Amino acid sequence: MTKTFKNFIAGQWVAPSTGDYFENRNPANTRDLIGRFPDSGSDDLARAVVSATRGFGHWSRVPAPARGDIIRRIGDLLVDRKETLADAMSREMGKVLAETRGDVQEAIDTAYYAASEGRRLFGYVAPSELRKKWAMSYRRPIGVVGLVTPFNFPLAIPTWKMFPALLCGNSVVLKPSEDVPHTATLLVELLLDAGLPPDVIQLVHGRGDVVGRALVEHPDVPVISFTGSTATGGTVGETCGRLHKRLSLEMGGKNAMIVMDDADLDLALDGVLWGAFGTTGQRCTATSRLLLHRRIHDRFVRRLAEATDRLVLGDGRALKTQVGPLIHQRAREKTEAYVGLAQEQGADVVIGGRRPRGSRLKDGWFYRPTILTGVLPQHRVAQEEVFGPVLSVIRFATFDEAVRINNGVKYGLSSSVYTADVNLAFRALEELDNGITYVNAPTIGAEAHLPFGGIKQTGNGHREVGWEGYHFFSETKVCYVDYSGTLQRAQIDNYD
Ligand code: UN1
Fold it and tell me: Which of 146, 287, 326, 331 is most buried by a 10 A CB count?
C-alpha cells in the first residue's frame, strides 16, 4: 500500500485542498515508491500563513533563552533519531549514509549553536553624545519567515535557516523541495515532539511555481530565505524587491581547486575526489573546476583518473557505495548535455562520460564520475553550474593565472588552494573572489558555526548560519533613553 502524506497547517496534518498528490521515488531505484505527497495549491499556503501569523504573536514574546531551550530539545531528538533520518534521507535523495549522517550532524550542530545563541543575541550599548542619555540596540523578531529549500541537504539546509529564524522569534512556513518531502515531514514531526508550538511551524508541500511562488508573493510573509538555482533566485529577487521583502539568496557555484606544483599531491588527490564526487557533485560548494599547475598536470590527471575509476557507484544505503545516483532524470540529462557540449568545444573525456553499464544500476539515475581535460576557462562547462559528477581540468602556468581563472566566472561561493608555500596560501585568501576559501582542503565542508555564502551571482550579500545568520532573521531596534528632564537636541553643536 502506498503511503499518502499530508501538509502540516494550523496545527493539523491535513490533505491538500487541491486533492492532488505527487510521487516521491528513490533515485537509486525508481521502482521503490516512498509515498505520495501533497501537490498543494495557493489556498493551502494562505491558510498556513494565517496560522503562522498567530504563532508569531505568542512565540515572538517567549524569551529568547526559553526559545533556545526548545531548540536544544530539538537537537537532542535529532541525536536520538540520527540513524532513522539518515536512512530516510539516503532513500529519497540518494547520497551515501556517511553523508546523510553528516547532514543530520550539521542540523544537530546548528541546533546547539542556536540554543546557546538564545543567551546572547547581543545588542550594543553605545555612549550617547549627550549627558544623562543612554543609547543602545537590541534585536527584534520580524514575523512570518518563508523558507524555500533544495534537495541536496534535505535536513541541514532547512534547519540552518529554520533554527536561527525560530531562535530570533519568528514563525516559519517551510516549502521543501518536491524531491525530498519525506525528510521534511520527519523533521516537522520531530519539532512537534520537542515541544515547538504547532502554529510556529507550517509545512506545505508542492511545486515551486505554485506553492513556492505563493509563499514569495504573500503580503504577510516579510522574510524569504531561498537556496536554489541562480535563475530561480533572480525571479524570487524581483518579486521580493517589488514587495520590499527581506531576502536571503544562496544560489549557484563554480568552485575551483587550485593545485600548485609544490602541493602534497596525495592530499590534493583525496581532496578533489571528495570535493568533486561527494554528493555526486550535487553541492553548491562542489569542486567543479580543477586548476592544475602545468608541471604536475599530466601526472596528477593520470592518478586522478585511476582513483576515479575505482569509485563504487550504487545505492547510498549499501555499505560499499561511494557515489550515489543523481536526483532525477532531468539532472542526469543535464549532466549528459554538459559533457556533450564540452566535447564539442574541444574537451576530452578521460574517464566516465557515460551511464554505468550492467543491470545492477539500471533503475536509478546513475552517471559515472567524469573527468574532462583540455578544458579552457571560457568553455561553457567551466563557466556554468552542472550540479553533477563532472570535473573540468584546466591547466595553468602561474599562480596569477590561476587566480584570474578562478575569478573569471559569474559565481563566487567557494575556492581552494593546495600549496606548501605560506605566502601563496595567504595571497589566495586575499585574491580569490569567493565567500569561502580553503587552504589544503577541498571546496566543500563548511562548518555550521561560521557564516556561509558567496559573492557575485552566488548570493545577494547575506550569509547563512554562524553569527551573521542571526542578523538576517532579526531587525535592529535602536533605543534612546533621555533621563535629563530637559529637551536635549542631538546634532546641535554643543561644543563652543
Ligand atoms: C550546499 O551545497 O548547498 O559546505 C550547501 C558544504 C556543506 C553545505 C553545502 N556544509 O559543502
Answer: 146
C-alpha pair distances (Å), 38 with each of 61, 145, 205, 306: 33, 21, 6, 45
pLDDT on residue 407: 98
Side chain identity, residue 313: L
Residues 328 and 213 in one domain: no
| Residue 358 pLDDT class (50, 70, 90 cuts) | confident
Structural domain including 275 reads 255-439
Read off the C-alpha cell for 238. 524581483
446 Cα: distance to centroid of ligand 1 (angstroms): 6
Structural domains counted in the chain: 2
User: What CATH number is attached to the domain comprising 372?
Assistant: 3.40.309.10
Protein residue with its CA nearest to atom 3 in ligand 1: 284
- Index of the ligand 1 atom closest to the CA of residue 447: 10
Each residue of 392-404: pLDDT tens digit? 999 999 999 999 9
Ligand 1 atom having least distance to the Cα of 283: 2
CB within 8 A of 116, min separation 6: which ones?
68
CATH code for the domain of 226: 3.40.605.10
Q: What is the pTM of this model?
A: 0.97
**Are residues 197 and 89 located together in one domain of the fold?**
yes
Supply the mean pLDDT for the chain: 97
In a domain, 413, yes or no: yes
Same domain, 363 and 243: no
250 is an active site residue: yes
Residue 91 Cα to ligand 1 midpoint, Å, equals: 19
Question: What is the structure's pLDDT at 420?
Answer: 98
Q: Is 248 in the pocket of ligand 1 (CB under 6 A)?
A: no
For ligand 1, whether the C-beta of 284 sits within 6 Å is yes
Q: Note whether 409 and 386 are same-domain residues.
A: yes
Ligand 1 neighbour 451 (Cβ under 6 A)? no
Is residue 182 in contact with ligand 1, taking CB distance under 6 Å?
A: no
Buried b (16+ CB within 10 A) or exposed e, 377-402: bebebbebbbbbbbbbbbbbeebebb
Between the CA of 496 and the centroid of ligand 1 the distance, in Å, is 57
CA distance 255 to 271: 13
